[in-house]
Amino acid sequence: MRRIGLKRGIALSAALAMISMTGCGTEWVDVGDIYTQDQVALVNIERKVEVVEEAPTDERITFEGVSHEAGEIPADAVAYSKLLRLGWNLAGGLESEQEGIGIESEVSFGMPKITQELISYVRDAGFTTIRIPVTWHNHMENGVIDSAWMNRVKEVVDWALGEGFYVILNSQGDYNQYYPSYEKLEESKSFLTNMWTQIATAFQDKDEHLIFEGMDAPRLAGTDYEWSFPSDDPDNILPAIKEEAVGCVNELNQAFVDTIRSLGGMNSQRFLIVSCLSAESDHATEDGYPFVMPTDTIEGHLFLGIHGFKPKAFCEQFESYSTWRKDRAELSFMTNVDSNMLRKGYGVVITEMGAVNKDNLSDRCSWAKDYCFRAELTGLPCMYWDNGQIEVAENQYGLIDREKLSVFFPDLLETLKKQYE
Q: CA-to-CA distance for 117 and 114, rounded, in angstroms?
């Protein structure tokens, strides 16, 4: 098992591999066997590293936090990635797809109405970024977003910006409106450009702390390929399906970027997040998927957004294993996006991540420790998916109690935060 020696109180540069030494006077932090020497050597993040001894058995690494003032625009999305750090998804709120109930859809998932006190509490809890998932199509009439809904979203965004958050505003439950097929491509482009023209115009004067995410997980909903493709393909049909779906996502991403850049205010230089098919990183980094990042009128202002519920058997599949078995090979997706995106000048945001509650808090904490260590080392900000649900059952990712303004699982929160403080 490989170990990396970290000297107390030193500043690390991109040549982080220089600290993988075996001499005397070092403190040893076990990072397991998930890093090769080359991977560590290529890490491109400058950070101050300090080993904090809370107890002899609890050595940990903390990183000196960084932020920026309004107007001090980060050099590029890779640099911006370092600022976003650990984020929180305001899930179960504004992204309901329920039709016909207007702004009351906000509470249709059983969560209380969002308050300024909640946003302030989340900030005090230690999160740097807040991602606000929003569904828009069910608040449109004849293509026009309801003004009451737009004003409600603006209110929540303003609270978050006022608390000093970096804010990601997206389109969450609209995936059937931007469907990645040739048959629906023009209709999907029309919906996407119309929707984002209205949103971006409404928020055109917000500074660079507000980031737009064009689509959440555009996918082949209702098919066997909604989230992934099988490894076997006896009839050789998958190449054509992948080419069509990924090609449509490429065009939709380009339409989103072009739309935002054509509008006024901060939109000409706003940082933007684009998606890959199903928000699955392999669909952007592996051979067989013709994914390309959009062209842009301003250099270095694009992120790729991916979902990171990995390993899926531990994080998503409730009936699968509940003990953290250190299946770290499945965390290698971080290395792939590092090689294929970060090193090409594109930022990457893990827009959703978490581990479902299987009555296995200790194991979820162990997973979070390994996951966030590797993510921070690679330069990937993580947005924890918190839908407020905490039963021992599938799709239960709750962390913050929105009624009592408390934390359901304090140990999990502290473990998530540990590498980002």
A: 8
Residue 238 and residue 153 in one domain: yes
In this structure, are 17 and 158 located in the same domain? Answer: no
Q: Could you tell me if 33 and 165 lie in one domain?
A: no
State how far the alpha carbon of 296 is from the alpha carbons of 257, 293, 322, 385, in Å.
7, 9, 43, 29
**Tokens standing for residue 329:** 């090979």
My answer on whether 172 and 31 are in the same domain is: no
Sign of CA dihedral 366, 367, 368, 374: positive
Q: Which residues contact 116 (CB under 8 A, 6 or more apart)?
A: 159
Tell me how far apart the alpha carbons of residues 21 and 36 are, in angstroms, rounded to a whole number: 14
**pLDDT score, position 329:** 67
**Runs of H (alpha helix) within 333-388:** 333-340, 361-378
Q: Which of 297, 381, 307, 319 is nearest to 347 (CA)?
A: 381
Please check whether residue 317 is in contact with residue 355, taking contact to mean a CB–CB distance below 8 angstroms.
no
Angle in degrees, 0-180, between the axes of helices 185-202 and 238-261, rounded to the nearest 10: 30
Whole domain around residue 340: which residue ranges? 67-418
pTM score above 0.90: no
pLDDT tens digits for range 329-359: 678 899 999 999 999 999 999 999 999 999 9
Q: List 130's β-bridge partners, or say none.
A: 88, 167
Task: Tell me phi and psi for residue 135, to 5 degrees.
Answer: -105, 135
Cβ atoms of residues 50 and 61 within 8 Å: yes
3-state secondary structure 80-141: HHHHHCEEEEECCCCCCCCCCCHHHHHHCCCCCCCCHHHHHHHHHCCCCEEEECCCCHHHEE
